[in-house]
Amino acid sequence: MTGPTGTTGKGGVDTDGDRAIEAYGLTKSYGKPAVRVLDGIDLRVGRGTVFALLGPNGAGKTTTVRILATLTEADSGTARVAGYDVVAERSAVRRSISLTGQFAAVDETQTGEENLRMMARLTGLSRAGARRRAGELLERFDLTAAARRPVRTYSGGMRRRLDLAAGLVGSPEPGVFFLDEPTTGLDPRSRQELWEVVRELAARGATILLTTQYLEEADRLAGRIALLNRGRIAAEGTAADLKSRVGGHRLDLVLTSSEAYLRLAGRAVHHSPETLTLGIPTDGSAAQVRALLDEIDPTGREIERFGLHSATLDDVFLDLTSKATTTPEASAHV
Ligand SMILES: Nc1ncnc2c1ncn2[C@@H]1O[C@H](COP(=O)(O)OP(=O)(O)OP(=O)(O)O)[C@@H](O)[C@H]1O
Ligand SMILES: [Mg+2]
Description:
By secondary structure, the chain is an alpha/beta fold. It has helices at 61-68, 90-96, 112-122, 127-140, 156-169, 188-203, 215-221, 239-245, 258-264, 286-296, 313-322; strands at residues 19-30, 35-46, 50-54, 76-81, 84-85, 97-100, 176-180, 207-212, 224-229, 232-237, 249-255, 270-272, 277-282, 303-310. It folds into 2 domains: 19-29 and 41-237, 3-Layer(aba) Sandwich (Rossmann fold); 243-322. It contains 11 helices and 14 strands. Helix 3 (112-122) crosses helix 4 (127-140). Bound molecules: adenosine-5'-triphosphate and magnesium ion (MG).
């Protein structure tokens, strides 16, 4: 994968110039007694790509982003962002990134325009320059009509767009964006709009690392996805790679009895006890499906019906995040 040329005047020199983010063996513990929150994270994100860090609550997504964005230090491991070491070259990293998300700081009592102008002034722009910059950003993020209203009256989607605009005030075109759950709580339309903004940023050559709990979002937006679970990367690759890990297809079996359901639950990646349905990974070929049906139900009495469909990222997520951590029952109602 080759990043766009000419967009990174600085910071592009590294052992591997195509990586905007590289992390090796990041660990982090909190509290006494120490609880390990990150347990050796490796990440490589190509310049000019969208990368999704996908994981359930408490997986360590925000902690990872905070380390990469220099807000927290890892206990061990190293990371480079835009070619700079996140500890030794912290201020160079900060100049190269934009960070928005769960910890954005916008003054609710001021208007969107006032917020952006104030931030622009803080970065050293003149009064006129700050006004111009705020105007451009309001326009770009479709906030011109709401520019003169206090931020507390904004909808969730408007607020999220303002956060993104705020992240762009300081460094007009930073190389690397960290978006921590940019669409959590947004309605489908606002989410689509935000996806558009992300695609636009990527099209201009920016690198975007976003965290999300939404599989569909990672699937639609990200070239590569890392599935984070309990402080470890459980899987990494393209959406197709991840789906192929659960066989590429899923055979859903509607069973005739709860005995059959319980007997087979352990090998399923999808569980629906109410309907006595289990989903089992398969490559989808007739030969394998036939063999599976024969093996699972040699007497022909335990399976009432079956259906075959392409695996979704949900299947991957449930499969990889349930292994060794929960019972089939615990993941059945997700
Ligand atoms: N400053 C802190 N002190 C103590 N524990 C912390 C601290 N920050 C995070 N943790 C713990 O680390 C774990 C991972 O938290 P983190 O915020 O990285 O998860 P996350 O994947 O972002 O979750 P979410 O989807 O809920 O945002 C959690 O168990 C959390 O309680
Ligand atoms: Mg978080």
